[in-house]
Each structure stands twice: as structure tokens, then as C-alpha cells.
Amino acid sequence: MQQPITPGRYQHFKGNFYRVLYLATHSETEEELVIYQPEYGERGIWARPLSMFMDTVERDGKVQQRFIRVSD
């Protein structure tokens, strides 16, 4: 695991908010996945590799986290 994350509310670098529900392990590859739900639109349940969730992005010449925890 790269960095531990915990369930709670996170903000995407583009501004939308998401609720991290669980951390899961892929049954075939054992890749760690983040199970999360957008706080907008249809509010479906999504999975994203932990490595992608914790990744950094460059925007307007600044490197920042893709998601930042904002509350429980």
C-alpha cells in the first residue's frame, strides 16, 4: 500500500467532492482499490486503483494531489 487512506470525504483537484467508502483488494491481481461515491449526479459506486487515487497531477504549472481528504 502506498499511503494509507481512510473512509471520508475527499475533494478532487477539479473541485467535485467524493465519499471514500472502502478499500478493497482485487481478487485476481491483489491490486488495492478505492471504492468511492461521487456527491453529485447519479451518485453511483465506483472503484479506482489506490495508486491512481493517491497520484499527483500537474495543473496550471502546479503539482498537486489528485484527491485531498477534507473531512470524515
UniProtKB/TrEMBL annotation:
Domain of life: Bacteria
Domain DUF1653 residues, every copy: 8-67
Pfam families, per the entry: DUF1653
Protein known as: DUF1653 domain-containing protein
Source species of the chain: Thalassotalea agarivorans
